Automatic annotation (TrEMBL), chain A:
Stated name of the protein: ASPIC/UnbV domain-containing protein
Automatic annotation (TrEMBL), chain B:
Presence of keyword Glycoprotein: no
Pfam families found in the cross-reference section: Sigma70_r2
InterPro entries: RNA_pol_sigma-70-like, RNA_pol_sigma-70_dom, RNA_pol_sigma70_r2, RNA_pol_sigma_r2, RNA_pol_sigma_r3/r4-like, WH-like_DNA-bd_sf
Family matches, as NCBIfam families: sigma70-ECF (TIGR02937)
Protein known as: Sigma-70 family RNA polymerase sigma factor
Keywords of this entry: DNA-binding, Sigma factor, Transcription, Transcription regulation
Annotated RNA polymerase sigma-70 region domain residues: 29-90
Presence of keyword Transcription: yes
Composition skew (Pro residues), residue ranges: 200-209
Family: Belongs to the sigma-70 factor family. ECF subfamily.
Region Disordered: start-end pairs: 91-114, 180-209
Amino acid sequence: MPQHHHPQFQIPDELLLSRLAAAVNDLDAAPTAPQARHAFALRRPDAAVAELRADTAVDPPVGLRDRSEPDTRPRVLEFQAPQLQLRLEITTHGRRRDVVGQLHSTPDVTSIEIRWPTGHHLRPVATDGSFSSPAVPAGPFSVLCHRRSATPVATTWVCV
Amino acid sequence: MDGPTGDGPDPAFLVDRAEANEVTAWDTLVQRYNQAVWNVARGMGLSRNDAADVQQTVWLRLVEHLAHLRDPACVGSWLLTTARNESRRLRAVDARTRPGHRPGPDPQNHQDPERHVVARDQMQMVLRALDTLPDPCPLLLRLSVVTPDLTATELAAATAIPEHRIAAHRRRCLQRLRTRLDASPANPSTDVVHTHPGSAPNPPADPAN
C-alpha cells in the first residue's frame, strides 16, 4: 500500500470503489436504451458501406493546426466504397447542419437519402453529381445513395 | 481473459443472431455494453449531449457492420474502440470550433426528494473529483466500477492502455482520487455516505486500514 499523506485515514479500495460506483450509477447513468434499440430498426443489410477516409475535424489541413481562432470553414468528410467516392461539406449553425455533397464516378446514383435517427431527407442529384440538404439535426447522420441497377451504398454513420 | 464478458450467451453467438435479424440478441448486446460505451464517452470528457450522440453513433455503426466484423467474439472490444474513436472525433470537432474550450463534467441532477441531500452532495463531489483527474483515470475508473466484468482485452481497447499495465494504472488512479478527496473541504473519508439500500455498502472508513 503506498504511503498516504493523510495522518489518520486511508479509505480502503473497496469502499472507495463502491462510493465511485454509487456516484456514477446514481448521477451519471447512460440514457435508457431505446435509442440503441432503435438503431437496429435503421438497419439496411442490402446496402454496401462507404467507409470514412478523411475528416478535417480530426486531420486539419496543413497550416491549420493549433489555431487559437475558431475554424469557421465547413468540415469536410470523405467516404469511399468500391464503386463510390463521396465528399461532404458540413456547415454548423447551432444544432443544425447544412450538407453539400459531391459524388465522384458514380453515374448510376439516382437519388440521395440523408438519414438521421429520427428522420430523413430525399434529395435529387444534379448531373454533375452534386446535391445538398439543409437543416439536418446535429448528431449521427448517414448518406444513403440509391442506384439505378445496383445495391445502394450507405456512408458509415458519423456524428456531425 | 479473452472469454465472453460476464454470464449469458457468447458475444459471437449474439452477433450472429442479430445479423439474422433477431432483435432479442441485439437487445442483449445493448444491455451488456451500453453502460460501458456511455462511460467511455463520459470518461473522455464529453458532455452528456455529446456522449449521447457518440453512444447512438456506436450502435448505428455496429448495426451496419454486423455482417463484416473481423472477429465477432471481440464485439465488445470493437464497440469500445469505436466509442473511443468517435469520442476523440467529437472532441476534435469541439476544439476546432471552440479553441481552448475544455468541456467540464456536467452530471445530471435528478430531483429525488427521498434521497438524503448530504449524500447527493457527497456523490457529486466524488464524481467531480473523478472527472477532474488526469487522463486516463476518469475513463479507467468509470469502466472499472460501472462494468466490472469487462475483460482485460476490452478494457485495453477502451483505454488504449496495454493489458499488462491496467492493474498498475488503476492502482495509481485510485490513489490520485483518494488524495483529491482528502484535499476536498468536506472530506467524505470521515463521513458516512447515506444512499438507498442496494446502491452500495457504506461502512464507516476504517482507521486501521
